[in-house]
Write a structure and sequence with these properties.
Layout (H helix, E strand, L loop, with lengths): L16 H8 L5 H7 L6 E6 L4 H13 L3 E6 L9 H11 L3 E4 L6 H6 L1 H18 L4 E7 L21 H13 L6 E5 L2 E2 L9 H10 L3 E5 L3 E2 L2 E2 H13 L4 E5 L5 E2 H11 L6 E5 L18 H4 L9 H7 L6
Parallel strand pairs: 1-2, 1-3, 3-4, 4-5, 5-10, 6-9, 7-12
Antiparallel strand pairs: 8-11
């Protein structure tokens, strides 16, 4: 008999997946274990920002990486997340068992010029979704920019100190999400890949400038751990299957300056006659930028079936990938 107040489970067996994987060891992969115990209907998962770079790749990777999930990608055209009444109605109809929240206002200059809009989209929407998801899983995408960049190689336990409006909204949203012990914060770094608009990945921004015949000025003294969207998507689905809680850093396995990133892309695209001009953060006149937001990814790697590649390694292993 169903207990009062308890939502019907989509797949009762799926909640045993982490234990099943540990017991099976090397004899069953995550996907094999997931398929073996898909006894009834799949778990519904919402992915917000499904028309963005990360969200679109997470949705596209679901068929191969997450066959035990029924994935619904939410785009702005389908539902505006600031329309809380409509989102609540949709939530009650579809009853997802997990929300992966990728949608955000991530353009730092826009956030600096319109803090109210940044807070609405990055904090208030996140708070609303986290409230809706009070009894289910919730994975929130945050950023390495929550750190001030004075230290580098940050762990999940290091103190945050945001320097920009965008980063401030992400820190505030993180604090809201982490009030629920069921919920998860995933901090990521510069993300590259092919987006629907051909303009969202860091690689696309640089390539578009070269295609327009422009010289790209890149900092030699600003460091990140760039990661590709396909790697991000694979990692997120593995993490989701394990029902994680707390904070995880998801970034590339290599610390690179903006200049070094550009040089890697220039080597990959000699046909564009790429022009690069090195520059320094000391010359920059815009919003404050942290010099070194590299992150330690040991915690998440301990849960994944693979090591997170650095950008140079990924490019070498994927010579024909559109990047």
């Amino acid at each position: 008999m169903r207990r009062p107040g308890r939502r019907e489970s989509s797949i009762d067996w799926i909640f045993l997946l982490p234990a099943i994987i540990r017991i099976a060891g090397n004899r069953l992969s995550r996907l094999e274990a997931c398929s073996t115990f898909m006894i009834t209907r799949k778990r519904r998962v919402w992915v917000t920002g499904a028309d963005g770079l990360i969200g679109s790749h997470i949705v596209a990777a679901a068929l191969g990486c997450a066959p035990c999930f029924d994935v619904a990608g939410l785009t702005r055209a389908e539902v505006d997340l600031v329309d809380f009444d409509r989102v609540r109605v949709l939530y009650n109809i579809q009853q997802p068992s997990l929300i992966i929240h990728c949608a955000a206002l991530s353009q730092s200059p826009v956030c600096q010029s319109n803090p109210a809009l940044a807070r609405k989209l990055n904090v208030e929407v996140t708070a609303f979704l986290a409230e809706l998801a009070a009894e289910i899983g919730f994975i929130f995408f945050s950023t390495d920019l929550v750190f001030d960049g004075r230290k580098g190689y940050y762990t999940e336990d290091d103190a945050t100190n945001p320097l920009s409006i965008y980063a401030e909204t992400k820190v505030e949203a993180e604090q809201i999400v982490l009030r629920n012990p069921r919920h998860t914060v995933v901090r990521t770094s510069l993300t590259g890949g092919v987006s629907k608009t051909k303009s969202r990945g860091f690689n696309e921004e640089i390539l578009n400038a070269w295609k327009a015949g422009k010289t790209v000025r890149l900092f030699s003294d600003e460091f990140r751990c760039p990661i590709t969207a396909p790697v991000t998507a694979r990692a997120i689905w593995e993490l989701a299957a394990l029902e994680p809680r707390g904070i995880y850093h998801l970034a590339g396995g290599e610390r690179l300056s903006r200049l070094e990133i550009g040089q890697l892309l220039a080597e990959r695209h000699p046909e564009l006659n790429p022009q690069i001009e090195p520059c320094s953060l000391l010359e920059y006149q815009g919003a404050p930028r942290p010099p070194d937001c590299s992150m330690n990814v040991a915690r998440i790697e301990s849960l994944l079936s693979f090591k997170l590649p650095g950008l140079a390694q990924w490019l070498q292993e994927k010579p024909k990938a559109d990047f």
